[in-house]
Tumor necrosis factor alpha-induced protein 8-like protein 3 (Panthera pardus), 203 residues
Amino acid sequence: MIQPPVTSHVSASVSSGPDVFSSKSLALQAQKKILSKIASKTMANMLIDDTSSEIFDELYKVTKEHTHSKKEAHKIMKDLIKVAIKIGILYRHNQFSQEEVVIVEKLRKKLNQTAMTIVSFYEVEYTFDRNVLSKLLHECKDLVHELVQRHLTPRTHGRINHVFNHFADVEFLSTLYSLDGDCRPNLKRICEGINKLLDEKVL
């Protein structure tokens, strides 16, 4: 879900006027900060791909709707993007041991299973089970913790918990999948993006 250099300029992610959120802008900000410490300048323009960015933007909207807090929604998505970028950098710089590469493959399979479940619960009405999806997301969280255990700080592990505990919250999932709720159009766009990533073998 992370791609090579993109050179286009991106505007600020949050403005003082209308509610403006851009995951690509947040990704660029996070990467500049992270890469100034741990990676070469040749990586400085690496951004999340367009499809993932669109999914993240929709996740921001539904998170803001559920939490009733622009600030909290922004923080959750910022934490998500920081974690994704840090893992991507570790992977590209071959920082994972053979044992950790095995965990990477387990995580890929679990993310694939979770992604297909998210889409299936949307496409097939009345199949949604919030406990099943919550369990899958918590299993993804545990694998991420295991993968980065020796690489990242307790603060980053806190970010991982912050992100997954929100998205795995059964009340949030119920809001997201409500058949007559305000989030239905957002869920449709999220699933369209996930389907595209599945077709492209990204997930």
Observations:
- DSSP finds eight helices and two strands in the chain.
